[in-house]
């Protein structure tokens, strides 16, 4: 059928206030738990001649040993070093040397290792992932060198970026008790304090089959995959000891606080307003995802339109509903425009937050947010690596791979009233922390002590 | 080979091929390791059907048909970019692109943002060295409406004074931020140092001074001369049949007249002046928590006959995690989170850059290790296994691009922009495979001699300078406050 462009434009113009009827193809995965507790999720898809392999371990920077901030992340780097049968960096021989790629990352709740390879190399990667899960043989030299690399990573991400320390400061001040207050990347002193014995202990405590999700997505034969997984992962023993879990609860905030901090690296004042939020598995999760999109997703979003475009108070305005396994952080962040006093940006941001609490979002805003999220989910599903990531996250973080298929329906069902109810519940004054983060040059000479706390009620 | 690289296909509708199978798997290396399973037989990638048509007004339309997900990408390329910025107006192409979607004859900036985002789409305008990209990505059901907005933004921008001023302020603030990051400062300085006052040497997004000089009139004039159908390419990838894409392009761009006689866009004078000799430069940033180290030298344009030799040579040196640079700087010495290199190949010139960030006191050591690796290219023959692995890095990146609309649009857009035939896609893998040791040595000797290499470091001089001065007696130190990116010397003229 030939497309009638004129008609299509008209039709599209009429439906912009409605969420799209576009359907996301289901991910028809198979799941299986091995007797040793390893969860295998397999998604057969022959669109491209590649296969994505991911192993998600349910251990993250919240599990850093006491006084060892950054340890889980340092350990992630060590996982690329030698094993009983593989020399260091052998994953690169198995991936990039044959046209594949590999990497890993550490988050608060999980540590993720991922590869994409031409599909004829799948078996080798299964061998290698099983090998580093069971037979890591790290030595002092490798450990010390890699620690230097991680320190350089810290300098690059935190010290060499003008606002690098601002991000760390927000986390540190937003949580009082939960280990989420410690930065994933750690700091130089804590990294220097780590030793090889701790690396071995961390491996045996958390790197075990019943703490892992293995996802394979792409071009493979399912029967063959099952046989390979049984061969390489099946014999790995299941330890008797329970896996230690973080049980610390972050106490609810009881009154508004404001903090001011100075940093010689920042050229323009920045501002954060944070609220403690729910766990990612909370019922408010989909509504807060929509809130994030409506408040800060794109140039039509509320914060961009008001603070960046109309009032020109900020040069960037962000909001993230960063929901984690334990609890979430709802964080607004502004970098102010030149010559704008921080008080003015702060007042305008608080007005926008209050508006979001006081009235439900419009139908058009809701439809836009839903269409944007739909497109994001489709883009995620373009590659085998993307599909594997969606399934793994659903399994390892949300506890059920089926969430990869049901999440969208949940998002599409969210009403404006639900978004407003969630905003009312979480964006409250007692739950609010304001952080002003200013250039060192703005510091009053010889007066204000660093980190001076003030009541949020007072006007600064 | 030279014939293949000269001109593009000129037929009106050139059906390139249908779902061609590409061999993207190199032969499996033998891995002598107990228990290591063998590799299976290699599989093939599929190249999606690609069709093209040139509209009567000269607009070239390229359609990639990929069945599967209901999403698409459309990239409108204006064949003029930052390379044509007038000498005093660095950033003109970028600023023009940034104001482009901030209002048209019939839509305000907020109306454009709301209309496009309501469709689940994203509209991005970005200036590059040789082109401007106006790109929309979104749900294919809404592709007609999204393309109508794309066309409106390209054809009818209003460039209102208040929008120009707003975007100018925003750009200046972003630049102030960027100039506090040692990586950005060193990169911008490296371009100047290696290319002098030639067209690809200036900060492409502008300088704090040049951005204040650009007027609304400059912007309107650039739009009038460069944004026209005969100077543009539209590349679309998605599930829509090619004929639908052509009809849609006709609908939204067909009545856009090419000015007669076609205005000649005043491009930059080619390679005005090159620096006489390489420099070693330290930019003192007293608050920098790390130093950025760059090696830089002029390089080849995109259409050079030895383009693929350059790609493979660079892959040996600094492409991928296991390249020499990253092996020596990160893996063996723990001096950086990552070291790598690349060749930016443009229309009339190119720029080679190698870089790494390290603690301030290690800047000299990193520069030295990087220089040693560069010399290896001309003096050492890479082992067959290593050469094969670096080619696999390039072939792997190519085949992964065939998994996404964005990847297709990026690859085809580049090929079309430089007038290369679209079937370059079919033999990219062969072209990479064909590069041999002799070609690599020749490339390194001609284009990557250490004698041509400048060294640029941005970091805290207090810690970085002493070891650097020992290693490079010719070291120049410029304080951050005295930097002038508009000047070939990079230094503000002394005031009296």
In short:
The complex is a heterodimer of chains A (460) and B (496). Chain A is of the alpha+beta class and 460 residues long.
Outline of chain B, from the CA principal axes? globular
Task: Name the chain pair with the biggest interface and residue counts per chain.
Answer: A-B, 92 and 96 residues
Largest beta-sheet characterization of chain B: 6 strands, mixed
Low-confidence runs of chain A (pLDDT<50, min 5 residues)? Answer: 1-16, 450-460
> H/E element string of chain B?
EEEEEHHEEHHHHHEHEEHHEEHHHHHEHE
CATH architecture of the largest domain in chain A: 2-Layer Sandwich
**Overall pLDDT of chain A:** 92
CATH class of the largest domain in chain A: Alpha Beta
- Shape call of chain A: globular
Would you tell me which CATH topology of the largest domain in chain A applies?
Answer: Cytochrome Bc1 Complex, Chain A, domain 1
Fill in the CATH topology of the largest domain in chain B.
Cytochrome Bc1 Complex, Chain A, domain 1
Structure overview:
In chain A, helix 2 crosses helix 5 (140-159), helix 10 packs across helix 13 and helix 11 (302-310) runs antiparallel to helix 12. Chain A has helices at residues 5-15, 71-78, 90-94, 122-134, 140-159, 164-174, 188-193, 196-206, 222-233, 285-296, 302-310, 342-358, 363-380, 384-396, 403-413, 416-426, and strands at 30-33, 39-44, 50-57, 101-106, 111-118, 212-218, 257-263, 270-277, 314-323, 328-336, 432-439, 453-455. In chain A, 51% of the residues are buried. Chain A folds into 2 domains: 27-232, Cytochrome Bc1 Complex, Chain A, domain 1; 257-458, Metalloenzyme, LuxS/M16 peptidase-like (Cytochrome Bc1 Complex, Chain A, domain 1, 2-Layer Sandwich). In chain A, the strands form 2 sheets. Chain A has a 6-stranded mixed beta sheet with strand order 1-2-6-3-5-4, sandwiched between helices. A 6-stranded mixed beta sheet of chain A has the order 9-10-8-11-7-12, with helices on both faces. Chain A has 460 residues and is of the alpha+beta class. Chain A is globular. The longest helix of chain A is centred in the first third of the chain and has 20 residues, at 140-159. Chain B is α+β, with helices and mostly antiparallel strands. Chain B has 2 domains: 50-253, 2-Layer Sandwich (Cytochrome Bc1 Complex, Chain A, domain 1), CATH 3.30.830.10; 280-482, 2-Layer Sandwich (Cytochrome Bc1 Complex, Chain A, domain 1), CATH 3.30.830.10. Helix content of chain B is 39%, strand content 17%. Chain B contains 16 helices and 14 strands. Chain B has helices spanning 92-100, 109-118, 143-155, 161-178, 182-195, 210-213, 216-226, 242-253, 307-318, 324-331, 363-379, 384-401, 405-417, 424-433, 437-447, 461-471; strands at 20-22, 45-47, 50-54, 60-65, 71-78, 122-127, 132-139, 232-238, 280-284, 291-299, 339-345, 350-358, 454-459, 476-479. In chain B, a hairpin with a 4-residue loop joins strand 11 and strand 12. Chain B is globular, with a radius of gyration of 24 Å. The N and C termini of chain B lie far apart (58 Å). Classes of the chains: A alpha+beta (460), B alpha+beta (496). At the A-B interface, helix 1, helix 3, helix 4, helix 5 and helix 11 of A face helix 2, strand 7, helix 3, helix 4 and helix 8 of B.
């Amino acid at each position: 059928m030939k497309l009638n462009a004129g008609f299509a434009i008209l039709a599209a113009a009429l439906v912009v206030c409605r969420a799209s009827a576009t359907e996301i193809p289901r991910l028809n995965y198979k799941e299986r738990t091995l007797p040793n507790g390893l969860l295998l999720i397999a998604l057969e898809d022959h669109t491209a001649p590649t296969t994505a392999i991911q192993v998600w371990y349910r251990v993250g920077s919240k599990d850093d040993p006491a006084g060892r901030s950054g340890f889980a992340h340092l350990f992630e780097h060590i996982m690329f070093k030698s094993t009983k049968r593989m020399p260091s960096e052998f994953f690169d021989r198995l991936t990039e040397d044959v046209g594949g790629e590999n990497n890993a990352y550490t988050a608060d709740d999980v540590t993720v290792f991922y590869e994409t390879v031409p599909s004829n190399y799948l078996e080798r990667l299964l061998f290698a992932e099983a090998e580093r899960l069971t037979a890591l043989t790290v030595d002092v030299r490798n450990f010390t060198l890699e620690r230097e690399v991680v320190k350089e990573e810290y300098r690059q991400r935190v010290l060499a970026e003008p606002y690098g320390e601002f991000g760390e400061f927000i986390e540190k001040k937003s949580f009082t008790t939960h280990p989420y207050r410690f930065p994933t990347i750690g700091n130089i002193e804590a990294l220097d304090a780590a030793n090889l014995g701790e690396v071995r202990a961390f491996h045996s405590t958390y790197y075990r089959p019943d703490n892992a999700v293995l996802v394979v997505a792409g071009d493979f034969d399912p029967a063959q995959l099952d046989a390979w997984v049984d061969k390489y992962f099946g014999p790995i023993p299941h330890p008797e000891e329970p896996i230690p879990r973080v049980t610390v609860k972050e106490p609810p905030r009881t009154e508004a606080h404001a903090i001011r901090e100075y940093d010689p690296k920042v050229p323009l004042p920045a501002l954060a307003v944070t609220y403690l939020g729910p766990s990612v598995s909370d019922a408010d999760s989909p509504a807060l995802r929509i809130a994030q999109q409506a408040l800060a997703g794109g140039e039509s979003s509320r914060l961009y339109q008001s603070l960046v475009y109309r009032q020109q108070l900020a040069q960037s305005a962000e909001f993230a509903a960063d929901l984690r396994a334990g609890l979430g952080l709802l964080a607004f962040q502004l970098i102010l425009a030149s010559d704008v006093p921080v008080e003015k940006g702060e007042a305008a941001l608080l007005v926008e937050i209050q508006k979001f609490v006081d009235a439900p979002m419009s139908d058009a805003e809701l439809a836009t947010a839903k269409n944007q999220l739909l497109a994001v989910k489709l883009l995620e599903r373009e590659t085998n690596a993307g599909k594997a990531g969606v399934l793994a996250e659903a399994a390892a973080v949300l506890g059920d791979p089926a969430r990869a298929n049901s999440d969208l329906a949940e998002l599409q069902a969210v009403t404006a009233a639900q978004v407003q109810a969630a905003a009312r519940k979480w964006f409250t004054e007692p739950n609010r922390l304001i952080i002003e983060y200013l250039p060192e040059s703005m510091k009053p000479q010889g007066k204000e002590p660093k980190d001076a706390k003030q009541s949020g009620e007072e006007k600064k | 080979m030279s014939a293949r690289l000269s001109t593009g296909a000129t037929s009106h509708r050139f059906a390139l091929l249908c779902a061609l199978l590409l061999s993207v798997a190199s032969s499996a290396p033998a891995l002598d390791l107990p228990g290591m399973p063998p590799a299976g037989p290699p599989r093939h990638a599929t190249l999606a059907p690609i069709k093209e048509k040139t509209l009567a007004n000269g607009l070239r339309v390229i359609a990639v048909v990929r069945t599967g997900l209901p999403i698409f990408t459309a990239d409108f390329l204006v064949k003029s970019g930052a390379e044509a910025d007038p000498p005093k107006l660095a950033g003109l192409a970028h600023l023009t692109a940034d104001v482009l979607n901030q209002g048209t004859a019939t839509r305000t900036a907020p109306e454009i943002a709301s209309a496009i985002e309501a469709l689940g789409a994203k509209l991005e305008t970005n200036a590059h060295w040789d082109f401007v990209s106006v790109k929309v990505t979104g749900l294919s059901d809404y592709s007609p409406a999204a393309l109508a907005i794309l066309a409106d933004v390209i054809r009818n921008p209003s460039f209102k004074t208040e929008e120009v001023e707003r975007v100018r302020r925003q750009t200046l603030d972003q630049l102030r931020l960027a100039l506090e990051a040692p990586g950005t400062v060193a990169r911008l300085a490296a371009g100047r140092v290696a290319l002098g006052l030639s067209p690809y040497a200036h900060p492409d997004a502008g300088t704090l001074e040049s951005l204040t000089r650009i007027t609304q009139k400059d912007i309107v004039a650039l739009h009038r001369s460069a944004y026209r159908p005969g100077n543009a390419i539209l590349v679309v990838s998605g599930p829509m049949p090619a004929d639908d894409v052509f009809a849609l392009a006709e609908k939204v761009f067909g009545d856009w007249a090419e000015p007669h006689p076609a205005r000649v866009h005043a491009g930059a004078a080619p390679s005005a002046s090159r620096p006489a000799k390489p420099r070693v430069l330290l930019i003192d940033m007293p608050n920098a928590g790390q130093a950025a180290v760059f090696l830089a030298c002029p390089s080849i344009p995109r259409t050079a006959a030895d383009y693929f030799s350059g790609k493979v040579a660079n892959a040996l040196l600094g492409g991928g995690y296991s390249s020499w640079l990253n092996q020596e700087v990160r893996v063996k010495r723990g001096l950086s989170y990552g070291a790598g290199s690349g060749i930016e190949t443009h229309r009339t010139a190119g720029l080679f850059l190698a870089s790494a960030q390290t603690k301030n006191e290690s800047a000299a050591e990193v520069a030295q290790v990087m220089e040693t690796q560069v010399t290896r290219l001309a003096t050492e023959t890479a082992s067959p296994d290593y050469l094969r692995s670096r080619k696999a890095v390039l072939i792997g990146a190519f085949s992964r691009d065939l998994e996404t609309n964005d990847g297709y649009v990026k690859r085809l857009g580049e090929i079309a922009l430089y007038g290369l035939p679209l079937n370059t896609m079919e033999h990219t893998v062969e072209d990479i495979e064909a590069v041999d040791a002799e070609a690599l040595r020749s490339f390194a000797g001609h284009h990557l001699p250490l004698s041509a290499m400048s060294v640029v470091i941005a970091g805290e001089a207090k810690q970085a300078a002493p070891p650097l001065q020992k290693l490079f007696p010719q070291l120049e130190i410029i304080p951050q406050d005295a930097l002038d990116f508009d000047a070939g010397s990079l230094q503000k003229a002394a005031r009296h």
